[in-house]
Structure formats: structure tokens, C-alpha cells
Specification:
Structural class: alpha+beta
Oligomer: single chain
Distance between the termini: 112 Å
Strand content: 15-25%
Length: about 500
């Protein structure tokens, strides 16, 4: 070891090697983080208010997902996206590809809502309702049933393979696979009537596309929730990457109260931390052990944090045992932490310009979508001119144009529709003016429209074709078309 010169001050000479060691350690840590093989995270089970809330969200989302396809409505599946027939049933509504605008409004609403709720409450979606979080919680619960909690799982993984270990692992993976493929089956049940799908599975007569998507979705569930887990949140999910653009100092995050907790250190339950020069953090590591992504929240806000609040529940339990106030780790904002303000200070800063703009846009989009849906007429008519015969003269000197009407009955009841026309004196429908249509059906048929020759001006004249339901009020559509007549003297 190199000794400092006799006339050199001791402090700087000793500090240089220390800085070099610290720098080398930092470089080693970075290199290890970049190149090391993934270290498996063993989240410890935790109980508490937020854990209960998280499991309530799991139950709510999964009851809806697994139960909705089995719900009947008007003698059919309540929610069914029938791609083959190009019909989308959502309870009492029937949507067609022409209703794509409603899907657009739904996507815009979801995007703006994501901006608003992230600006206010951070990653609460990730922590409580994201499918990756939900299925990871379920798969972890299954894993604990077979392998036990954190310590038991680490010991089992470190133990050599024997009959007991093989049986436990096989049972766990069998349960995972069964649950994953039931999930894939349910997913496909939103596109193929689930009762028919179940019969096809039992009779081994599944179609190729149903088979592919059941296995694909089941394998994705098994892989993401059983094997990849936090890797999906850290490396695959784009939300973790662009959330920084939506966060500000008034966004709700999970924060460690450094001023209260540091300096950290172990101590007895009856010890006075102030006399020992310590903060409230006993450095037990529970907050790291319960974290599903394996981070230490005491290092500050990190993009890997999904806002699940498991660390809050774990820390609160330790604080309660030590007799300290809860909330060393809590939901807060950067401003609230800096100003040492409580819930009132957080709430007062919710209504800031950013959130007000997001809220106004969201209200406008939701209002427009609700209004459009409320005023939606479940009858659609397209008028197409017959290009084979633009105009012809028929008996009594009348001029006739032929059109092709594409009528879509978007209700779940059969209707009789009457076709009428106006716009030129004496104009009439020469073909059958009444058509009958089955429920949720579409039909194309020719319509012949005639005008007295004396009333027809040369060239193109604007007319209006009206389709009205005779057996239901309010079902009427008016479509503009052009009636062609030869020019005088031509």
C-alpha cells in the first residue's frame, strides 16, 4: 500500500483511495446490473389495508372477466364480438363495422383518462388493476399454496432436485397451466359463443383459429405471470417508460420519509432511537422483501415501482410492533414530502392547471361519446346508383333511375321498413315500397324511382330517399341521392 508523503496532510491522501474504491464499486454495480443474469424475486406475503384493497381489485376484475361471457341477454351471449358475422353485441346494443367511431371515442377516452389519473394518482392502475399485476398475484398465491412463503421458496429452489421437489414443482406448474388455459378459453369465448366453444373443446372439434388463440393467450398468461413477472413491468411495458412525462411534483407516489427514517439502524424494541442517533427505520428490509419488482423504495422514486403499496403494509406492521407512528412509507407527493404537509396539502394541489386541462378534455370526449350513443339510430342506409342503367324512359313517358339500397337493421327485433322519396314533383317509388328485415341483419335490394318526363330537368337533380320503420317510432333515416335525366334536345 502506498504511504503518503511525510509532509502531506493525512486527510486528502486517505480520501483519494476511498474515492477510487467508491468509484470502482459504482462501476462494478452498474456492470452487474447491465450484464448479470436475472436474479429471481421472491415477494414475501403481506397483509394490510392495501393488500386487502389489491385482492378486492383482483376479485372484481376476474369475476367480470370470467363471468361476463356466461351472462345471457335476449337469448344470446351478453357480450360477444362476432367477427365472422361482423356484429358486436354489448348487452342491448349491436354494433357494426360502420360504428367504428365509437371504438375511436373509447380509445381516446382511455388515453385521456390515463393521462389524468396518472397525473393525479401515479401508477395506481399498475398496482391494482393491470392484468399483469392481477395474474401475477394469482400465480403467486398458487405458488405459495404449493411451496410456502418467501423463505420456504428460496430454500426449495436452492435444494437439489429430488422426488419431493419434483412433485411440488410439477403440481405448481400443472395448476399454473390449467389456470392459464382456462384464461385463454375465456378470452376466446368473447369472440366465439362460449357455450359452443365449450362443446367444441369437449368433443375435440375446435377450429384452427380458436385452437391457436386459446393456446397463444394461455401460453402468454403462463409465461408472463408465472415466469417473467416483474420483467414485464421493467422491460416490456411502455407505461413505465413514459410515465415520467406525466408525473410532476404533485403526483401521488409511494415515498419513504427520509427525514424521519434516517439514519437507519437496528435496535431493540424498548430502545430510544434518538439516544442512539437513529431514525425510525429499523433497516429490517421488509419493504424490499414484499416488493413484487424487488426494489428498495428507500432509494427514492424508481420507474420499477408499480404503486402496489405492499411496502406500505409491510412497513406499517413493523412500525406498529416497534410502537412508532405508521406512515414511514406512505402515499404522498414530492411537494408534500418537502413541505411536511398531510392529506390536506395533497388534496389542495390536485386541482392544478395540468389536471384541469386533462379533466376538461376527458369531460368533452365522454360527453360527445355519450351524446352520440344516445342519439344513435339503430338503422343504417347506404344508397348506391346502379351503374348499368343510368336513366331510361318507361311507359307513360316517365324517366326511371335504379338504385341499390343497403339497409342495416341494427336492432334485435324484426322490422318493416317503408321506402319513400321526395325532391321532384311527382317522384315516386316504382318498386315494392315496403321491405321486411330480420333482427340484427343487413340486406341489399334494388329500388326503382320514377319521375314524370315533364317534371324532370336535364342533368342531375337532388332527391331524398327516406327509410322509416312502420312498427317502431323514431327509426328513420334520410339519405340524399341524385336523379339523372337527359338534357333537353340531346
Amino acid at each position: 500500500m502506498t504511504q503518503p508523503a511525510p509532509d502531506a496532510p493525512a486527510g486528502p491522501a486517505k480520501a483519494a483511495p476511498l474515492r477510487a474504491v467508491a468509484s470502482a464499486a459504482a462501476r462494478e454495480e452498474v456492470e452487474r446490473g447491465l450484464f448479470e443474469v436475472r436474479r429471481k424475486v421472491y415477494p414475501r406475503a403481506v397483509t394490510g389495508w392495501f393488500a386487502t384493497l389489491r385482492w378486492a381489485a383482483v376479485w372484481l376484475t376476474q369475476v367480470i372477466f370470467y363471468g361476463l361471457p356466461w351472462l345471457a341477454w335476449n337469448d344470446r351471449q351478453a357480450v360477444l364480438f362476432d367477427l365472422g358475422a361482423r356484429k358486436f353485441y354489448i348487452f342491448g346494443l349491436v354494433f357494426w363495422p360502420q360504428d367504428f367511431i365509437y371504438l375511436t371515442l373509447l380509445l381516446v377516452t382511455s388515453a385521456v383518462a390515463l393521462f389524468l389519473f396518472t397525473a393525479i394518482a401515479g401508477r395506481l392502475w399498475c398496482g391494482y388493476a393491470c392484468p399483469q399485476t392481477v395474474y401475477t398475484e394469482i400465480f403467486l398465491w398458487i405458488e405459495r399454496l404449493f411451496e410456502g412463503d418467501r423463505n420456504a421458496r428460496t430454500k426449495l429452489d436452492a435444494a437439489p432436485v429430488d422426488g419431493r421437489k419434483f412433485a411440488i414443482k410439477a403440481g405448481k406448474h400443472a395448476a399454473w397451466v390449467a389456470f392459464a388455459f382456462w384464461t385463454g378459453f375465456t378470452f376466446v369465448g368473447y369472440f366465439t359463443p362460449i357455450k359452443e366453444l365449450g362443446g367444441a373443446v369437449l368433443s375435440f372439434s375446435l377450429g384452427p383459429w380458436e385452437t391457436f388463440w386459446i393456446f397463444f393467450y394461455g401460453f402468454a398468461t403462463y409465461g408472463n405471470a408465472g415466469w417473467m413477472r416483474e420483467q414485464v413491468c421493467k422491460y416490456m411495458c411502455p407505461y413505465a417508460r413514459f410515465q415520467g412525462a406525466m408525473f410532476d411534483q404533485d403526483t401521488l407516489i409511494i415515498a419513504y420519509d427520509r427525514g424521519r427514517g434516517d439514519p437507519r439502524g437496528a435496535r431493540g424494541k424498548k430502545a430510544d432511537p434518538k439516544s442512539l442517533g437513529l431514525g425510525d427505520c429499523v433497516d429490517c428490509g421488509i419493504c424490499v422483501q414484499v416488493c413484487p419488482t424487488g426494489i428498495d423504495i428507500r432509494d427514492g422514486l424508481q420507474y420499477e415501482c408499480i404503486g402496489c403499496a405492499a411496502c406500505i403494509d409491510g412497513c406499517d406492521q413493523v412500525m406498529e410492533k416497534m410502537g412508532y407512528p405508521k406512515g414511514l412509507i406512505r402515499y404522498s407527493t414530492e411537494h408534500a414530502m418537502q413541505e411536511h404537509s398531510g392529506l390536506g396539502g395533497i388534496v389542495r394541489r390536485v386541482l392544478r392547471p395540468r389536471t384541469l386541462v386533462y379533466a376538461a378534455i376527458l369531460a368533452a370526449v365522454v360527453g360527445a361519446g355519450a351524446t352520440a350513443l344516445w342519439m344513435r339510430v339503430p338503422l343504417k342506409v347506404d344508397v348506391i346508383r346502379d351503374r348499368g342503367a343510368l336513366v331510361r324512359e318507361v311507359e307513360d313517358g316517365e324517366l326511371e333511375n335504379v338504385y341499390r339500397l343497403q339497409v342495416m337493421n341494427a336492432t334485435e327485433s324484426p322490422h318493416r321498413y317503408r321506402i319513400a322519396v321526395e325532391g321532384i314533383p311527382g317522384i315516386r317509388v316504382a318498386s315494392e315500397p315496403v321491405v321486411e328485415m330480420a333482427a340484427a341483419s343487413t340486406r341489399a335490394f334494388p329500388v326503382r324511382i320514377r319521375v314524370p318526363g315533364a317534371e324532370a330537368k336535364g342533368g342531375s337533380q337532388r332527391i331524398v330517399i327516406t327509410v322509416t320503420a312502420e312498427d317502431a317510432s323514431g327509426l328513420q333515416v334520410r339519405e340524399h341521392a341524385a336523379f339523372l335525366a337527359p338534357r333537353r334536345g340531346s
